[in-house]
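Researcher: Let's do a round of design. I'm pasting the structure tokens now; please hold your answer until I've finished.
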């Protein structure tokens, strides 16, 4: 199916299914209605230098690993009910604009560098972006449950207008580290962690609006772990270092009157620094501070 400009496919109760087919056009709109959207086999959604717009009122969106979406921009102008799993290993998506699932998860596999410029949300579920060599966030990634970013050798960049939010925020990269520009916000109401580790420096100390309840397992290779955070707001809020946290240099700074509570292992190759202006530092049972210099 092809057109020079707009391709607009609207399904009914049976939804929209593309099986081993090719859809081309400068703008491709798929509305699966209550039946959802299925991309199976070697289905290819390919608007050259264009936009893919996916919407469902039920049934969700399911893309097979063998299918692919090649688009400059991915959006959902009408929202998604039932979650979206875009698992095509050959997906090439340059930017993600507004894309919100009111139920279910949002999972996007992308083989190209991607910039989240709009609001990507999972109102009742989790968000996972993976496969991209570089993940840049200048918009928002807002998950009711987990927000998971897994990048390649280019790392993860959180811009000045970025919001990365989840009960669990899980960030990993095989290179390039993780950077955050002042003004950006990272909110982890339960824990910040890195399941697969990070190669390169993790620098989350520029922002004064990070709100993080605890730091879990976080291994940094060939770089430092630098974090400034408020801890959870409200009475009894703390910034807890559960660990293990590993890096060349480790610096944890709490920028509000809440204590830094250490209950796990912090191991630095050179310098380990804990800084708190007024909330104090609490080393509890199980706390291990290990470095040539501890400040």
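Researcher: That's everything. Go ahead.
Model: Designed sequence:
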């Amino acid at each position: 199916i092809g057109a020079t400009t707009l391709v607009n496919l609207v399904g009914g109760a049976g939804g929209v299914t593309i099986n081993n087919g090719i859809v081309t056009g400068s703008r491709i709109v798929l509305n699966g209605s209550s039946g959802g959207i299925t991309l199976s086999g070697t289905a290819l959604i390919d608007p050259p230098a264009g936009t893919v717009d996916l919407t469902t009122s039920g049934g969700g969106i399911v893309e097979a690993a063998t299918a692919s979406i090649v688009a400059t921009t991915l959006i959902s102008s009408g929202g998604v009910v039932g979650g979206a799993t875009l698992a095509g290993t050959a997906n090439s998506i340059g930017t993600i604009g507004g894309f919100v699932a009111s139920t279910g998860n949002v999972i996007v596999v992308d083989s190209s560098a991607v910039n989240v410029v709009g609001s990507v949300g999972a109102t009742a579920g989790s968000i996972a972006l993976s496969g991209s060599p570089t993940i840049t966030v200048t918009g928002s990634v807002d998950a009711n449950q987990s927000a998971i970013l897994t990048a390649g050798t280019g790392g993860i960049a959180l811009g000045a207008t970025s919001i990365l939010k989840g009960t669990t925020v899980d960030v990993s990269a095989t290179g390039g580290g993780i950077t955050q520009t002042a003004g950006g916000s990272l909110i982890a109401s339960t824990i910040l962690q890195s399941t697969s580790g990070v190669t390169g420096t993790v620098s989350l100390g520029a922002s004064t609006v990070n709100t993080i309840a605890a730091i879990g397992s976080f291994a940094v290779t060939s770089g430092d772990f630098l974090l400034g955070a408020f801890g959870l707001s409200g009475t009894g809020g703390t910034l807890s270092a559960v660990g293990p946290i590993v890096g060349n240099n480790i610096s944890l700074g709490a920028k509000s009157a809440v204590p830094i509570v250490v209950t796990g292992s912090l191991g630095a190759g050179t310098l380990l620094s804990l800084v708190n202006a007024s909330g104090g530092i609490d080393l509890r049972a199980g706390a291990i501070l290990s470095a040539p210099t501890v400040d």
